[in-house]
# Entry
Amino acid sequence: MTLASIGDGVITTDEAGIVQYLNPVAERLTGWPAHQARGQPVTTVFRLLDADSGEPLPNPVRELLRGTNTRCCCGATASACRSSTPPPPSARARAS
# Structure
């Protein structure tokens, strides 16, 4: 199985948090074509919002790369799509 065929969104970065790859699901969820996302900071391509307030949440990828977070987001989140169109319901997650 390759990253391109996984049913979940996959974004890979280098150690500085620069996007190296998005699979097709991540492209749909973020609104970024892989060729345009490549070379962008992950905080530009992958943004999380509080599902209730719409306020931005800390980016877990950046926190993991800094070594300041070792677990996933808590509570209801929604990804912020690049376009003005709201993300699809599948972009929402409830982490435990």
Remarks:
- Helices lie at 24-30, 34-37, 42-45, 60-66.
- The CA atoms of residues 4 and 24 lie 6 Å apart.
